[in-house]
Amino acid sequence: MSDMSELFDRRIVLGVTGGIAAYKAAELVRLLLRGGAQVRVVMTESAQAFIAPLTFQALSGQPVHTHLLDPAAEAGMGHIELAKWAELVLIAPASANFLARLATGQADDLLTTVCLATSAPLMVAPAMNQAMWRNPATQHNCQILGQRGVVIVGPGEGEQACGDTGPGRMLEALEIAQVVAGYFRRGMLAGKVVVITAGPTREPLDPVRYISNHSSGKMGYALAAAARDEGARTILITGPTRLAAPPGIQVMQVETAKEMLAQALEHGAGADLFIAAAAVADYAPEKVATHKIKKEANGELHLHLVKNPDVVAEVARLERRPFVVGFAAETEKVLEHARAKLQRKNLDVIIANDVSDTTIGFNSDNNAVWLLSGEDAVEYPTQDKQQLARRLISDIAARLERHNNKAS
Ligand code: PMT
Fold this sequence. Notes:
By secondary structure, the protein is of the alpha/beta class. It folds into 2 domains: 5-184, Rossmann fold, CATH 3.40.50.1950; 193-286 and 300-407, Rossmann fold, CATH 3.40.50. The protein is 35% helix and 24% strand. The protein has 14 helices and 19 strands. The chain has an 8-stranded mixed sheet, with helices on both faces. A hairpin with a 3-residue loop joins strand 18 (366-373) and strand 19 (377-384). Helix 1 packs across helix 9. The longest helix has 23 residues, at 385-407. The chain is globular. Ligand PMT is lined by residues 197, 199, 215-220, 257, 276-280, 282, 308, 310-312, 326-329, 341, 353, 355, 361-363.
């Protein structure tokens, strides 16, 4: 088991709602306790149809809370006391019904009431059938919760208890416990809000075609995971990729550069750090054809492209501007072109990679970069993107700290 010493003495209310994944919550209690956390379990009525309160009582060594209007329980640790006691309220599994009730601010049972009454951060690990997870109503509820700062952990993809395959499985207990430990870790970016763009954009030509590029999202996702591990509240704005959403990160899915810009301006204003690892299409078709474009008789097709907005440059222009880090994907005169972009886009730092080398950069597992600022240049030789991301995030976090100290 990886080190989870950050859990030591943390006070966690674990909410268990109705779903087959409720059995995984028993293992979660065990792992949280093993890390040294104090755990109080609150169960909804439907959770008790899947697993008995006695299981959690035996594991946690504490009474399990099940009813809002139980005089005996309220005489012990009542709902307000529980809400005040908690340093984190973690709901695992969180059913579709529970997410809907949380999103609408209901307080019709003990768990929803504790969630409303607490000032502790809320973390939810959704678990449901894939169609229920994909349903726009659930997605909308998660969006609302994400906007309120609720940390959404997972769900994972795979075979489901009902026989379906797809997204909606609750993450494994160990994965959730690791996210919780990371959340309590006082990392270099603790208390900071970090926004990262990743992946390609897609600029539609007609209903079936688009202009895009080979970005896989690996670099941006690795940076988001590294920022999360350093304790940041991390928001990942991503174009279409094949990668699973990293746990503990708020993910905003976009397709076009304009959609990415809208999300970047919304989340970038007031953020502490903005990192633009996305490969945003520089141009988009002026018009999107309503119907599939037919072959021309002369065998030629002329497209009229117009310039897309520059997402990172627009964020750097914001009044409440974060510390802004861009990337430069170059195929020649890498450092010279990157330095020009650093200045032109008014960035604090730029990370240059040579994308003419197919063993690094676009779509590969490795990368090699130069980190350039107005004052210095640091070389990071070829290594896997996860390791590189951790090193870049430490370097950038230290620069952010110095920048903030200078400004204050
Ligand atoms: O996703 P991977 O497969 O892991 O590949 C990683 C990567 C090669 C995509 C990544 O390391 C990288 O270099 N990302 C930036 C790609 C790019 O578009 O670079 P650029 O030099 O064209 O743009 C410079 C900067 O401006 C970038 O931060 C880019 O995100 C940003 N930009 C560019 C155009 C635009 N319209 N809006 C932008 O924000």
